[in-house]
Amino acid sequence: MSIGLIGKKIGMTREFFDSGISVPVTVISIEKGRILDVITKEKRGYDAIRVGFGKLKTSKLTKQMKGVFAKKSTEPKKILREFRVNNISEYKEGNEVGLELFKDYKFVDVTSKTIGKGFAGAMKRHNFSGLRASHGVSVSHRAHGSTGQNQDPGKVFKGKKMAGHMGDKLRTIQNLEIIRSDLENNLIFVKGSIPGSKNSLVLIKRNTKNINKTTTLERIQKAQSQISTPANKKKEKAKTTSPKTQTELKPEKKEVKK
After folding, report:
1. What residues contact residue 77 under an 8 Å CB cut-off, 6+ apart?
2. Which CATH superfamily hosts domain 1-31+99-116+167-220?
3. Which of 64, 65, 38 is nearest to 51 (CA)?
4. Total-model pTM
5. Residues 6 or more apart from 173 whose CB is under 8 A from it?
6. pLDDT tens profile 43-75
7. What is residue 245's predicted lDDT score, i.e. its pLDDT?
8. Residue extents of the structural domains in the chain
9. Which CATH architecture has domain 33-97?
10. Same fold, 1-31+99-116+167-220 and 33-97
11. Measuring CA to CA, which of 37, 143, 144, 196 is 20 to 30 A from 29?
């Protein structure tokens, strides 16, 4: 129940801190979206907003969509996305939304399509170990084994892990940490990797789960504060006793006359 933004995955790099620690990050370019329509409960039964992202040539629009954008008196948008929201009064038609949505948020959820792998076998697709490499096994080293039963039930159940099309599916990675946001260039730096190849479209939303996890920046600042402040030293008792100056007297050897 929160609004999100659509961006483009640029690639991965590293973000360095003053302490010398480097964090792997994914750079996502965000283009501001425009609120095209405000949907209320009276109109459709739920509160939502429709946001348009990206630019599109007018020549590529159908007559129906030309009428939609002409009615809203806005430039054509490539992607239209509907977001359900709790408080509809915060949004107005024609306003723009950008990276300021994640100003007070430390974690986000990212949804994108995974890289398509084509037709893959059971070992690559489902991490099967395969059959033995010797002792009578021939031509079936990378086979997935038996698939079904005999007369009862006499069929292969749906969802059976077999060879097939791998990748090219929508996947969501939750609770990814925001390392840095560049409002001037509309860039957001997210810790770790996200699904999809370079230049693929991703959907960034506020995290749905409430987690109490310290961020990387907080841990680095805590470590630096511990290093900079001296450790609590135990109070030592003042020693007023003077150093020992006693010398041991060795007995003198007496000469014995023969």
Report:
1. 34, 36, 52, 53, 54, 55, 56, 69
2. Translation factors (2.40.30.10)
3. 38
4. 0.77
5. 109, 110, 111, 192, 194, 195
6. 889 999 999 999 899 899 999 999 999 988 889
7. 46
8. 1-31+99-116+167-220, 33-97, 119-146+160-166
9. 2-Layer Sandwich (3.30)
10. no
11. 37
